Amino acid sequence: MTAPLLNVKGVETYYGNIRALSGVDVEVHRGEIVSLIGANGAGKSTLMMTICGKPQARTGSIFFEGQDITRMPTHQIARLRIAQSPEGRRIFPRMTVLENLQMGASLDDLKHFKEDVEKVFALFPRLKERQAQRGGTLSGGEQQMLSIGRALMARPKLLLLDEPSLGLAPLIVKGIFEAIKKLNKQEGLTVFLVEQNAFGALKLSDRAYVLVNGRVTMSGTGKDLLANPEVRAAYLEGGRH
């Protein structure tokens, strides 16, 4: 098997003296959708932020395309074409939709800007209608689309999505998940997805990991974990949510 695009090995992350991640091992191969599920406070977002270098892992290592990025500053990691749509969206509320997308494209010197904007607008037609509107005036679903669109403007090799369905209506969530699937199937984009919506994430994913109190306790295909009685009891409440 070829080497993983992203390889997280034995990573421990601390906030002061509090250990948030305990020896986490995760692999993401090129062209996959891999999800990380777990309860609130399990350390899912911490792992995403550690991959991006803020905070840095205290022990263990993180490799991207075979290169050790464990101690690399965040801006250098971004230049390797790892893009993140963070939890809580964190768009620029005073900037227009178009200006937010420009911010995402700045690493690429804007040379593909027009072409990439059209791709984002094709994926999320609502953003095209709202392109002159300030980000802060958009609905929650539109802001999530903008957050993902902004990350895509960096032409990522790896897209990190942190809780893209959080606080959104089921119909909007369905549209977001369909867009992720489309990006993966049509563009071959590799996606690492952190989600509390375990049913939606596992259904979408090639493979998945379960994180409990900062440790990976289980891994397998999305299909296998969907059928796993422990996973169903802990995260799916007997079905979906």
Write up what this structure looks like.
This protein has a domain at 1-81 and 188-241: P-loop containing nucleotide triphosphate hydrolases (Rossmann fold), CATH 3.40.50.300. 38% of the residues lie in helices and 26% in strands. The protein contains 10 helices and 10 strands. It has helices spanning 44-51, 74-79, 97-105, 113-123, 125-129, 140-152, 170-187, 198-204, 222-227, 229-236; strands spanning 6-15, 18-28, 33-37, 59-64, 67-68, 82-85, 158-162, 190-195, 207-212, 215-221. Helix 3 (97-105) runs parallel beside helix 6. The model has no long low-confidence stretch (mean pLDDT 93). Belongs to the ABC transporter superfamily. Keywords: Amino-acid transport, ATP-binding, Nucleotide-binding, Transport.
Give a topology summary.
Elements (H helix, E strand, L loop, with lengths): L5 E10 L2 E11 L4 E5 L6 H8 L7 E6 L2 E2 L5 H6 L2 E4 L11 H9 L7 H11 L1 H5 L10 H13 L5 E5 L7 H18 L2 E6 L2 H7 L2 E6 L2 E7 H6 L1 H8 L5
Parallel strand pairs: 3-8, 3-9, 6-7, 7-8
Antiparallel strand pairs: 1-2, 1-4, 4-5, 9-10
The profile of the biggest β sheet is:
6 strands, mixed
In terms of DSSP E residues, the strand content is 25-35%
| Order of H and E elements | EEEHEEHEHHHHEHEHEEHH
Which regions contain 5 or more consecutive residues with pLDDT less than 50? none
How do the strands line up in the largest sheet?
6-7-8-3-9-10
Q: From the helix content, strand content and strand pairing, which structural class follows? A: alpha/beta
The counted number of beta strands is 10
Tell me which CATH architecture of the domain at 1-81 and 188-241 applies here: 3-Layer(aba) Sandwich
| Highest-level CATH class of the domain at 1-81 and 188-241 | Alpha Beta
Shape: globular
GO molecular function: ATP binding; ATP hydrolysis activity; branched-chain amino acid transmembrane transporter activity
Family: Belongs to the ABC transporter superfamily.
Keywords: Amino-acid transport, ATP-binding, Nucleotide-binding, Transport
InterPro entries: AAA+_ATPase, ABC_branched_ATPase_LivF/BraG, ABC_transporter-like_ATP-bd, ABC_transporter-like_CS, BCAA_Transport_ATP-bd_LivF, P-loop_NTPase
